[in-house]
Design brief:
The chain is of the alpha+beta class and 313 residues long. Strands 13, 14, 15, 16, 17, 18 and 21 form a seven-stranded antiparallel sheet that branches. Strands 3, 4, 5, 8, 9 and 10 form a six-stranded mixed sheet that branches. The longest helix has 11 residues. The chain is elongated and about 70 Å long. The model has no long low-confidence stretch (mean pLDDT 93).
């Protein structure tokens, strides 16, 4: 049995403000799966942030001596898969979501991954979490040998400039880190911050679900060129207040219909109330995933835009 017990990794807090000062550096927020690699000198095992094992999903990383010279180590990083030259969460989930491990070899050939390493917690028998980030990064550069499927995450001193590049590339965002920060296991504080870049659109509400007789989730759609409504995702989080949800609950009463308005079937059908698609909302989201559904949609506001202006491009 492996001698290193899996831990919950350090997390950044969300921010809109970019901090000032020479101690701050930025890194690309790679849109993938957070995975820590544990090597006790004998055995290599991989675990995600929820402590679920991923050793068998990513066999490329099992032979650690190919890319790391440490005698024992815990590495922290993000496993990504590219689509059209950019990280795609949808693509990496083709590997991470495998339930039948006999499919791993076929998936390995089809979906190439890269392990983007950005931190080290344990090195040659010693915990190094109390070292400053700048010192931990020096350790990484000494022991990691970059190759096709393993890379070290780069620091950028000009935080604003990196964020502008991320926006232009429509990638997920940036992580801003204090170079003097220690690594806090199962921690989350302002020494690491994430600033996400999202896109937005106006969508139509085609259905809702309730909790305690109040609307708590919206099924969203956009109209195709043929005038039919296509389901693009559901959202229950965002900026609506309790009063907004209450007013929306009252406002949908005359719009309730027995038949589903969407052409394609949403995954959530049970206890859904279907609506005549006229109410529109502004939605922030991370990216489109294949099949025209939104990832991480959140409701920003109810808007007065005509439903038929909400088009699927």
């Amino acid at each position: 049995m492996m001698g290193l017990k899996p831990v919950i990794p350090f997390e950044p807090i969300s921010t809109e403000q970019i901090p000032d000062g020479p101690q701050w550096v930025a890194q690309v927020k790679w849109d993938g799966v957070r995975v820590l690699t544990y090597y006790d000198g004998d055995e290599v095992r991989l675990f995600n942030r929820k402590l679920n094992e991923r050793t068998f999903h990513y066999p490329e990383l099992a032979n650690i001596s190919e890319y790391c010279s440490a005698r024992s180590v815990i590495l922290d990083g993000e496993i990504i898969a590219l689509k059209d030259g950019k990280p795609s969460f949808y693509e990496v989930m083709k590997r991470d979501g495998i339930t039948n491990l006999s499919n791993v070899n076929a998936a390995k050939k089809k979906t190439l991954i890269t392990y983007m390493i950005f931190d080290i917690l344990f090195y040659n028998g010693q915990w190094v979490t109390s070292y400053h980030l700048v010192e931990r990064q020096k350790m990484l550069s000494d022991i990691i040998k970059p190759m096709d499927y393993v890379q070290l995450v780069e620091n950028f001193d000009d935080v604003e400039a990196l964020y502008e590049v991320i926006k232009a590339q429509e990638m997920e965002g940036i992580i801003i880190k204090d170079l003097s920060s220690r690594y806090v296991i199962n921690g989350k504080d302002q020494r690491w911050r994430k600033k996400k870049f999202y896109r937005d659109l106006i969508a139509v509400i085609g259905g809702v679900t309730l909790r305690g007789n109040i609307v708590n989730s919206l099924l969203l759609g956009l109209f195709g060129d043929d005038g039919r409504l296509w389901y693009i995702g559901h959202a229950g989080t965002g900026r609506l207040t309790q009063k907004d949800w209450y007013d929306l609950t009252e406002g949908i009463r005359p719009l309730i219909e027995p038949r589903m308005p969407f052409v394609n079937k949403p995954p959530r059908l049970k206890e859904t109330i279907w609506l005549k698609p006229v109410i529109t909302v502004k939605v922030k989201f991370a990216e489109w995933i294949d099949g025209h559904t939104l990832r991480q949609p959140s409701i920003q506001a109810l808007v007065g835009v005509s439903a038929h202006e909400c088009l699927l491009h």
